[in-house]
Amino acid sequence: FVTTHYMDEAEHCHRLAFIQHGSIIACGTSAEIKRTMMSGEVLELEPSDAPEAIAILRAAQAKGIIPLLEVELYGALVHAIAPNIRNHHRAIERELLHAGILTGHVSVIEPSLEDVFISAMKK
Question: Contact at 8 Å (CB) between 42 and 79?
């Protein structure tokens, strides 16, 4: 698995390729790969308990409460990914607050190459 450091470095490359099981699944500039391989927007949260927030949001995803495509841990941050994520922002906050987790700083951000890589590898 490629570490965050290498993904940060990859952002500066002219052309990239994602390879999975010996097949190229994405190729192009980082901007092209982000545009073609990312199937959603990223909501970044800084919850009071990130691992527990992940568990709660994944449970809400599995139950169909919030239509998230992915929920991933990024250090102390959580990235929730869905089309039109702004429409689900309040539901995400409600689920976390109901479980006693403060959401902290919340914002919609541009996907990182790491977000796109994880998304592409799960497809």
Answer: yes
